[in-house]
């Protein structure tokens, strides 16, 4: 099918060439672009015609020359950090222009990506947030979206291990939306859906558009339920330019948990017969910490060409250490984009290749918690100079030994390829074909040597050293064919989009492991030399494994944009999409959307009576989106191992059904409504937007009990549940001071979100009315501490309600009848809803100061109105914690309520005694820069900057940095793992040079 489609496409393109080949008349414009504040020439300003078929860039002296088609009505000048300007083309071939620093208002010509195209911001009728490159935060992070943290109302970006160079953030838009399918948004990179988000260098980003409204994201059908993030990278220009950006960063521990020193341990634990003194004095936290953790990154960009052919090339190198002893990452990446326009402007071709290679040493996320709980009187090394064998405490191992001897590495290769051919059939009619491939491979390498103290002490002769290799490959191939038509009839403006999309996904995995190698020096490179890889005495079939699976997604889509007199705007779209993941009865689905907007500021009664209103637009949108982010083959009858069968004295592996077929399995459906307001007042000194949304997620996926027979298995994966999110979002920006030498502007983002789980059942599948979640691990049997229940919100804590502590140091709780008993005398039936871990408000405030060539940015970020279960206090924050384990200082601090819990009778019993207010406000990012234009033969400009991240946190939470506790997903406000990776303060020193 794929080859036939390409053959058909080639034939159609050839016929179009024969039918429409014609030479277009052109003319050349030239001029100089300068800074309005000091008259300095601006190099690197981009100039495009209104048809976006011609581009040019100013040289070092601010001079440009652009060849445009005859009949071009306007050209646009844009430059990072400056307001864009569109100028009408007259008979004069010389256009000189002055640009002013950007003010982030609606009067700018802001081009917004809306999915399969762009629109002027004034034409938008759905909820879309546009962020340009200059508005991104300066960060030294593994993922470029960390620079977006706090910038977009409703988009919550969290990373519970920021100082781990291999960590990735968790990203969620407008609340949790599913129980068993993906919760993250769809990434569209340069128009290609599903790109590698880690394969983006922040310096290459031109803009980010976040599609929040259902009408905007419905154009992506079954992948748009959790919103869409569109990333546009920089393009080439006709002017040669070279740019360098480099920084060094340093991460220091901050707001960390503090445990007892050796002397404090002896006083409080040993003397109370809760520990032993092994005579050493070891600060285990210091011993496993690499502080400051150093990182460096260097980016070099080139662009140039002619008005018809231009290129953009970028290369980057990053080397980063983690705050722990083992974590490390080294990566090399590049991006090359070439654009070409034929002389007659009939064809516009573009090709992009973006390879990236990463080598990682993976952090041991449990090593810091190991160090927190280890007896501080135990030595790192024994008398023989070997690592001490440790078999007491929570984890019974030596964390320094683990960090230095156990290896866990990764090799990651990513490649994004896409090429497009656009044909301008008529001045207002074009068609574009885009072919792309997104590839990612991940090789995981693990090794533990035979010299580990635990192996030596046990005198093991089998299962000594261990090695494993695992390779995972993800490949996505896409082809998309779109057509665009625009029609202007007086005051009526019409834009039509139609398209076809085909995506083929494939996943492969293979793994092999073994023990007992003759030499530790082999690591994972000679698995066959091990002696424990098969047979009855070894691992048998578990020594190797492999799998492959895939899916196909086919779509037809269309969109209509209409506006009357630039005043009344209507947008409607429909996507019809089919997926091989769905059941036989539900292969195809329809995803309609409609939105409308009214620009009141264009009405005479506003213009005449309220002249201080520059822009006022009200809008509303409705759209249906889907979620097909779940495993392949869930609708099919699968076969798996079903035991062994004896035949002629020998046992044979037999296979049988391992899942139930479900021909009705379908996508999760999201019904979205959004009403909003965009405004700009007082000569655009104040601007912003306000949105109210309701999103109802229906047909949520889950496993439900079914009778056997007629089914072969006791559960079936089906579409059943319903959930709702609603909220308010506000974005506000203002120019407080706007002068030639000094300016001060602010940007505010605010989001309020509430969630309600409506139902677990439908007319076919009946489930219970609640689900227990957030199970806490051993030691002890704390059980689950949250419950998802019909009529309640995600994140509801469901535990015993505390009634204080008695004189014996035992926890007291309320029973359901209101009586008070010791916690170990209560039952699960006495549990109650005691709080919620889902934040009500998330906000940020950005302040930008400019004085001549200096710029200062101060960014605050806060999360409010939720509870956090203090996991560290629960396990190691009380005097009754496990014997011979170290504890937090709060366990013996008389001002801490946790110091009262002295009785072991109620240890490991969860209650709201350990719930704390999670609200916090951070001085999240402060940056200071200085820019110096240079009129030399070799340099155009130079900028030096310094930035600090996570400088201070204002909070009453006592369990460290509350930002390290995940608030996205199904169990917000609780860390259900004992792993702990400390928070850090990051300092960045950087240099930017334009050649």
Which CATH architecture of the domain at 111-236? Beta Complex
Q: Judging from the principal axes of the Cα atoms, what is the shape?
A: globular
Structural class: mainly beta
pLDDT averaged residue by residue: 90
| The first-level CATH class name of the domain at 111-236 | Mainly Beta
- Percent of residues in helices: under 10%
CATH topology of the domain at 111-236: Ferric Hydroxamate Uptake Protein, Chain A, domain 1
Folded structure, characterized:
The chain is mainly β and 995 residues long. Among the domains are: 24-99, Immunoglobulin-like (Sandwich); 111-236, TonB-dependent receptor, plug domain (Ferric Hydroxamate Uptake Protein, Chain A, domain 1, Beta Complex), CATH 2.170.130. 7% of the residues lie in helices and 49% in strands. The chain is built from nine helices and 49 strands. The strands form eleven sheets. It has a 22-stranded antiparallel β-barrel. Strands 10-15-16-13-14 form a five-stranded mixed beta sheet. A hairpin with a 2-residue loop joins strand 24 (466-489) and strand 25. The chain is globular and about 95 Å long.
């Amino acid at each position: 099918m794929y080859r036939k489609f390409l053959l058909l496409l080639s034939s159609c393109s050839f016929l179009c060439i024969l039918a429409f080949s014609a030479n277009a008349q052109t003319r050349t414009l030239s001029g100089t672009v300068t800074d309005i504040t000091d008259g300095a020439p601006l190099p690197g300003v981009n100039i495009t015609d209104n048809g976006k078929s011609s581009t040019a860039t100013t040289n070092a002296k601010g001079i440009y020359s652009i060849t445009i088609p005859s009949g071009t009505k306007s050209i646009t000048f844009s430059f990072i950090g400056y307001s864009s300007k569109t100028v009408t083309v007259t008979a004069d071939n010389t256009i000189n222009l002055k640009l002013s620093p950007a003010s982030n208002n609606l009067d700018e010509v802001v081009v917004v990506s809306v999915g399969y195209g762009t629109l002027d911001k004034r034409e938008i009728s759905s909820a879309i947030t546009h962020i340009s490159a200059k508005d991104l935060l300066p960060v030294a992070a593994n993922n470029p979206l960390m620079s977006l943290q706090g910038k977009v109302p409703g988009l919550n970006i969290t990373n519970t291990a920021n100082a781990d160079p291999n960590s990735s953030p968790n990203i969620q838009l407008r609340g949790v939306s599913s129980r068993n399918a993906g919760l993250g948004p769809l990434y569209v990179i340069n128009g290609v859906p599903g790109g590698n988000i880690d394969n983006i260098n922040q310096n290459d980003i031109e803009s980010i558009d976040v599609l929040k409204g259902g009408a905007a994201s419905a154009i992506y059908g079954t992948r748009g339920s959790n919103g869409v993030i569109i990333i546009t990278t920089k393009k080439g220009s006709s002017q040669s330019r070279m740019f360098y950006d480099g920084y060094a960063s340093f991460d220091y521990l901050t707001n960390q948990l503090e445990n007892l020193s050796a002397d404090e341990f002896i006083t409080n634990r040993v003397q109370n017969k809760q520990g032993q003194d092994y005579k050493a004095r070891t600060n285990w936290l210091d011993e496993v910490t690499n502080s400051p953790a150093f990182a460096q990154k260097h980016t070099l960009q080139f662009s140039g060409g002619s008005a018809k052919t231009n290129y953009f090339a970028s290369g980057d190198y990053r080397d980063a250490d983690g705050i722990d002893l083992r974590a490390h990452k080294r990566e090399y990446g590049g991006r090359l984009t070439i654009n070409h326009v034929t002389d007659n402007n009939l064809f516009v071709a573009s090709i992009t290749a973006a390879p990236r290679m990463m080598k990682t040493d993976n952090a041991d996320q449990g090593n810091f918690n190991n160090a927190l709980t280890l007896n501080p009187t135990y030595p790192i090394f024994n008398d023989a100079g070997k690592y001490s064998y440790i078999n007491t405490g929570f984890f019974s191992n030596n964390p320094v030994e683990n960090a230095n001897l156990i290896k866990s590495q990764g090799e990651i290769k990513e490649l994004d390829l896409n090429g497009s051919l656009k044909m301008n059939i008529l001045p207002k009619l074009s068609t574009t074909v885009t072919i792309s491939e997104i590839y990612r491979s991940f090789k995981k390498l693990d090794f533990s040597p035979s010299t580990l103290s635990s192996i030596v002490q046990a005198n093991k002769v089998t299962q000594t050293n261990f090695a494993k290799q695992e390779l995972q490959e993800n490949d996505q191939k896409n082809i998309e064919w779109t057509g665009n038509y625009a029609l202007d009839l007086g005051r009526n403006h019409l834009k039509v989009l139609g398209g076809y999309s085909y995506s083929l996904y494939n996943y492969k995995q293979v793994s092999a492991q073994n023990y007992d190698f003759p030499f530790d020096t082999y690591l994972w490179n000679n698995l066959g030399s091990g002696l424990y890889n098969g047979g009855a005495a070894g691992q048998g079939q578990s020594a190797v494994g492999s799998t492959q699976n895939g899916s196909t997604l086919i779509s037809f889509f269309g969109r209509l944009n209409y506006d009357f007199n630039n005043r009344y705007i209507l947008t409607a779209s429909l996507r019809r999409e089919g997926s091989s993941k769905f059941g036989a009865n539900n292969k195809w689905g329809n995803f309609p959307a409609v939105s409308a907007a009214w620009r009141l500021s264009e009405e005479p009664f506003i213009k005449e009576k309220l002249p201080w209103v520059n822009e006022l637009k009200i809008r509303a949108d409705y759209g249906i989106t889907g979620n097909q982010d779940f495993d392949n083959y869930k609708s099919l009858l699968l076969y798996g191992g079903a035991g062994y069968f004896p035949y002629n004295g020998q046992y044979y592996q037999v296979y049988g059904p391992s899942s139930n077929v479900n021909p009705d399995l379908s996508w999760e459906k999201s019904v979205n409504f959004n009403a909003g307001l965009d405004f700009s007042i007082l000569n655009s000194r104040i601007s912003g937007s306000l949105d109210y949304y309701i999103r109802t997620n229906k047909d949520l996926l889950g496993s439900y009990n079914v009778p056997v027979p007629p089914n072969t298995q006791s559960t079936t994966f089906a579409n059943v549940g319903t959930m709702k999110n609603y909220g308010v979002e506000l974005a506000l920006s203002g120019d407080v001071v706007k002068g030639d030498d000094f300016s001060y502007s602010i940007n505010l983002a605010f989001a309020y979100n509430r969630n309600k789980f409506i139902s677990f059942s439908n007319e076919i599948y009946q489930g219970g009315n609640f689900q227990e979640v957030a199970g806490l691990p051993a030691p002890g049997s704390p059980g689950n501490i949250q419950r998802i229940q019909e009529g309640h919100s995600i994140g509801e804590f469901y535990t015993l309600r505390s009634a204080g502590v008695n004189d014996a140091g035992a926890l007291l709780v309320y029973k359901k009848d209101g009586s008070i008993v010791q916690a170990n005398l209560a039952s699960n039936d006495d549990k109650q809803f005691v709080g919620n871990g889902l934040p009500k408000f998330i906000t940020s405030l950005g302040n930008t100061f400019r004085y001549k060539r200096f710029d200062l940015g101060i960014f605050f970020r806060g999360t409010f109105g939720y509870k956090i279960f203090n996991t560290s206090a629960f396990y190691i924050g009380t005097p009754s914690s496990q014997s011979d384990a170290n504890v937090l200082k709060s366990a013996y601090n008389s001002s801490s309520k946790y110091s009262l819990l002295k009785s072991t009778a109620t240890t490991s019993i969860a209650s709201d005694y350990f719930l704390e207010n999670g609200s916090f406000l951070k001085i999240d990012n402060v940056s200071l820069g200085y820019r110096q234009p240079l009129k030399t033969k070799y340099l155009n400009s130079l900028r030096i900057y310094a930035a600090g991240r996570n400088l201070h946190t204002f909070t009453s939470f006592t369990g460290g940095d509350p930002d390290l506790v995940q608030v996205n997903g199904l169990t917000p406000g609780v860390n259900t793992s004992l792993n702990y990776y400390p928070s850090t303060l990051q300092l960045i020193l950087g240099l930017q040079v334009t050649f």
